[in-house]
């Protein structure tokens, strides 16, 4: 991008690109400008990084890449081709494995299709040949699959298929051919050399299962190709083969890198001391719950440190704040805010506003977590006040993925296939004093582990006393907090220690001010309409009087 940006600035300075007199807020060229690639030309035109094969489009919206024949060289890819149920027949067992083949059923396509046919040419052919038998969306899908089989797939690529609960892996060994076949079930074919064994589907790596669950007949698996390469081979075998290969870009080395285990660090005594948690074992239990379910909610009354603890643990387990994203739910929060949806965006050059699909915080973090090189690093989304939104509306089809992490779903807006990365963890916080807790339905409760943070139980019950001890302060605030909570019968409305863990509380008059403006109003709301004198029952004077030692009775004077 740097060279294209420099060239763009020089062309503007030389007067070869000027403000357009015809189109307001646009630029135009004063002479022909030759670029060395479509991407370079797009970057100069747009003033940003760009893929010219996708950015240059026809009036109908089709990209330039659809009109260019795909090269027959380039890095090897990995493909999934389904053949276990083609018109009721298992072609994997009947044809592919015995005869060394892989095929695509496209019996209505006219004869004479050539390898390397462009997508634009293929689109015209499919529209004409299948106009009366397939819907528009089905024709689009067929174009993608046939184009990939004819023009993207090449000898040396890895091919996978599933049959009888096993994943079979092979290698494409020749060019595509179009032949007549029984029932038009396999008229587009390529020779393939299949391995002699299959791998049990339920034993495959979770990330590979996610891709295999995409419901298309032909799927590009290149992003998980390293996991396929490592199937059936030990780390030692991969290491030895990587050493024998030239360079550091071998498939075996990539398989070793992809195999790196995802780990959550073990909690330490130092972490427990920093967070003022009473016992390291409590932190270990939280870690184990996250590891087992990947979704966890801290719940309890206000002021119990739920958000603080969620952020601190996320940063510790994720290795730093850059792996953590915070979002706060509220009643008007929706799926479009949380995951993806059409949002108005202004073009920085034209100042025109248009609706475009925009990623929300969950989609952004999921994309970051799934990047190559990041997959063994834990990433955390902290959802504050998770019960204040309509969760069924916010999560949409993602409800399914929270429970089935090895599956993919088709997204509502973009139409892409999506799976939650295995290294993405969710921590929510829930205020039990908020009546909107009723919005948390049984489906959501089943998908999260719930950890209580209550003034009546550790680690919250002794938190203020431990903090005061560390700060070298008098323990009266801890005594007062325990006294006020002893008078509150509903545990969901007890007062958390966070109100009294701020510097302002310990300035002159700070405790009285905090009690009057933070704690008593909270209890006023709790007893609204009950006729309770909150000041008389929970005020500092009443509490201190209850804590004062009783005067000793005087001994009677002997006669």
Into which percentage range does the β-strand content fall? Answer: 15-25%
Radius of gyration: 32 Å
Number of helices: 23
Oligomer: single chain
Q: Helical residue percent?
A: 25-40%
Question: Major sheet, described briefly?
Answer: 7 strands, mixed
Tally of structural domains: 4
Outline type: elongated
What is the arithmetic mean of pLDDT?
87
CATH class of the largest domain: Alpha Beta
Runs in which pLDDT lies below 50 for 5 or more consecutive residues are none
CATH topology of the largest domain: Rossmann fold
CATH architecture label name of the largest domain? 3-Layer(aba) Sandwich
Report how far apart the termini are. 106 Å
So, the CATH homologous superfamily of the largest domain? P-loop containing nucleotide triphosphate hydrolases
- Got a strand count? 18
Q: Structural class given helices, strands, pairing?
A: alpha/beta
Explained architecture:
Strand 15 (409-410) and strand 16 (417-418) form a beta hairpin. The chain has four domains: 2-67, no CATH class; 78-220, no CATH class; 269-452, 3-Layer(aba) Sandwich (Rossmann fold), CATH 3.40.50.300; 463-546, no CATH class. The chain is an alpha/beta fold and 559 residues long. Strands 3, 4, 5, 6, 7, 8 and 9 form a seven-stranded mixed sheet that branches. It has 23 helices and 18 strands.
Set out the fold topology.
Layout: H1 2-13, E1 17-19, E2 27-29, H2 38-46, H3 52-55, E3 78-81, H4 91-99, E4 101-104, H5 119-129, H6 136-152, E5 158-163, E6 166-172, E7 177-178, E8 188-200, H7 206-212, E9 218-220, H8 225-229, H9 235-244, H10 251-258, H11 269-275, H12 280-293, E10 295-300, H13 306-318, E11 324-328, H14 335-338, E12 340-346, E13 353-359, H15 361-369, E14 379-384, H16 391-395, H17 398-403, E15 409-410, E16 417-418, E17 424-431, H18 442-447, E18 449-452, H19 463-471, H20 476-486, H21 510-526, H22 534-538, H23 540-547
Parallel strand pairs: 3-5, 10-17, 10-18, 11-14, 14-17
Antiparallel strand pairs: 1-2, 3-9, 4-8, 5-6, 6-8, 7-8, 12-13, 15-16
Helix pairs in contact: 1-2, 5-6, 9-10, 20-23
